[in-house]
Design a protein that fits this description.
This protein has about 325 residues and is of the alpha/beta class. It has helices at about 20-30, 45-55, 90-100, 105-125, 140-155, 175-195, 215-230, 230-235, 245, 285-290, 290-300, 300-310, and strands spanning about 5-15, 35-40, 60-65, 130, 205, 260-265, 315.
Amino acid sequence: MPQPKVKLVVTGDDFGYCDRRNRGIVDCFLSGGISNVSLLVNATSAEDAAELAKRHHIPIGLHANLSEGLPVSPDLEGSSLLNKDGVFHGKMGFRKVLQSGKLNMSEVETELRAQVKRFRDLTGHLPAHMDGHQHVHVLPEVREVFAQVLSDFGIMFTRVPVEPGLHSCTSLPSHLLDFYTQVEQDALQSVEVFRRHGIRWPDVYLGLSTMGQNMSVPNLKRALAYTLVSRTSLKSNGFTTPPHIVRNNDISTSDSDQPITAELMVHPGYPSHPQQGGCGQGPDDFSQSLDRQHELETLTNPSLLVFYQQQNIHLCAFKDL
């Protein structure tokens, strides 16, 4: 078999969110649309998801959750991580509490460690990779704690959500582009922290511009084109991703005999039924949306799978990098 041009980890996030998401993610994996999953251990169907991963030999990592639903740790009563109802503050609420300076980082550490241990209890092993639900892992202060927890448990890989070509994507509404731009800025500032702790990540990250209805075979090919030209860019110093991300990541290399590594973040599944699933508060609109099934159908489109073969893109898991 020829050496692949690109080793692509296609990660199905939110595994465990509900039974229908689990079934859709497994169907997507068995059809060749994804190669890796990221588990929400505080979700209602996490135990089922872990069992499905074992049964079907699905590579699995941890989708650390500090923003949605109930905590895993029993020691967080009255915690700054929780609102008056005893649940996490939400995607934007978490960020507001963090910005106010009222978020206790020792409580963040307690919950992250509890989620790693819960993952180990469910799967029988530590996660091969660990990222953050709603990108909380790259936020200021949180990234320091997150990196230390990864280092202490020996978890080697994470996600750095800086997507080449994001700002040239015309299909994104302004409010999403503003949020993704902030995620990108936080991610760039996380690079030094992750590198200092010996944590690695693929050369290229994709997925912000191809979520939900924005996912199509042409849009995926457009995004993947940035990966396919990465080697040329590396050799010419015309980086498609910032130089300090590419150069200082232990996975990456400018050796033309080595494949470029990339992660594509996706959210396939069948839409959740109302009141069935979630992380302790029921499923959100994102999970009940038909966008989940749209992603599944796009990722398993035969023309996309043929494209991978034609371009010598090899789908793999983090453990294969």
